[in-house]
Amino acid sequence: MLKLAVIGDPIEHSMSPLVHSCVLSQLDIEYSYEKTRVEKGNLKEYIDYAVKKGINGFNITMPHKIDILEHLDYIDKEAQYYASVNTVSIKDGKLYGYNTDALGYIESLKSCGVSIKDKNILILGAGGVVRTLTKAFVKSNAKSLCILNRTIKTAQKIIEDISKAKTSLEFGDLSDSTIKDKCKTADILINATPLGMSGYDGEFQNFDFLDYLKPESIVSDLIYNPPKTRLLSEAENRGLKTLNGMRMLIFQAILADEIYLDTKIDREKIYKKTIELLKNSY
Ligand code: NAP
């Protein structure tokens, strides 16, 4: 039996057990999947427990994606590039680290017929996930990338950490006027803040910036709960194409299961069925 887990803090809200259950049950895999709260600083204790319990692999969410690096025996090339690991496979007591977040997002766009190449991308927020996505966008030859953040220094640091990019890079504040200005040229607008997330007490003050986007622009919210944030609903009302965070969540889970099972999965087929299965419980 495949023994899996997800760790993080907080972890109660995580939909990973549900998503992996939908994927693995379609593949007829006998599995267990536990959700474990691991506080910052307690990774070593968890790893000892996981190895002893015969856990085959675990997914990682906040705040361990960087801290895990020093505990690994092998770090995949992509994960080294992102300096972030969200998937650990355990074999013969050795830990192998991977990152499926970035490819998960890019696959989710691809499944909507959108490619990153030559696109102008505007990201709101500069947290852990943006650090990874930014590198992936540069690698996928985005035309330009602009990160706007409440704490401008964090956006600046992400941009400065990227060297030798063909992509034109910019950062700025999250003021209404800056967002509006940057929306004028954006092909893809991504919300990577928790504004609008279920259980989070914060929302965009207004959505007038959406009026500045081109009619063919895409509005992508990394949030998956609720499935339709106010941002996406306002974008839809303006006739813009939208994408929520569910596709990313599912694709990064499928990619992680490919690693645990050491096999290729028909991603699009499993994705479609997973979405269907989730409709009843989400
Ligand atoms: P994080 O590291 O905690 O970063 C949060 C970002 O949001 C920071 O840039 C922060 O700005 C900004 N922010 C927080 N509260 C804000 C507010 N009230 N007003 C304006 N900005 C605010 O989080 P993360 O891991 O990058 O995740 C970001 C989002 O992506 C979350 O909503 C998360 O649920 C989602 N996500 C989705 C998936 C998926 O599979 N769909 C995967 C990963 C993450 P400061 O720097 O100023 O604090």
Most strands sheet: 6 strands, mixed
The structure class reads alpha/beta
Uncertain residue segments? none
- In total, the number of strands is 12
* Radius of gyration, taken over Cα atoms and rounded to an integer in Å: 19 Å
Portion of residues within helices = 25-40%
Ligands bound, unique: NADP nicotinamide-adenine-dinucleotide phosphate
Strand order, biggest sheet? 2-1-3-5-6-4
Polypeptide structure, described:
With 282 residues, the chain is of the alpha/beta class. 37% of the residues lie in helices and 21% in strands. It contains 10 helices and 12 strands. It has helices at residues 16-26, 43-53, 77-82, 101-110, 128-139, 152-160, 176-183, 230-237, 246-261, 267-279; strands at residues 2-8, 31-37, 57-60, 74-75, 87-91, 94-98, 120-124, 144-149, 168-173, 188-191, 218-221, 241-243. The protein has a 6-stranded mixed beta sheet. Strands 9-8-7-10-11-12 form a 6-stranded parallel beta sheet, with helices on both faces. It is globular, with a radius of gyration of 19 Å. The mean pLDDT is 95. The structure holds NADP nicotinamide-adenine-dinucleotide phosphate (NAP). NADP nicotinamide-adenine-dinucleotide phosphate binds at residues 62, 125-130, 149-151, 154, 174, 192-195, 197, 202, 222-224, 245, 248-249, 252. Residues 62, 125-130, 149-151, 154, 174, 192-195, 197, 202, 222-224, 245, 248-249, 252 line the site of NADP nicotinamide-adenine-dinucleotide phosphate.
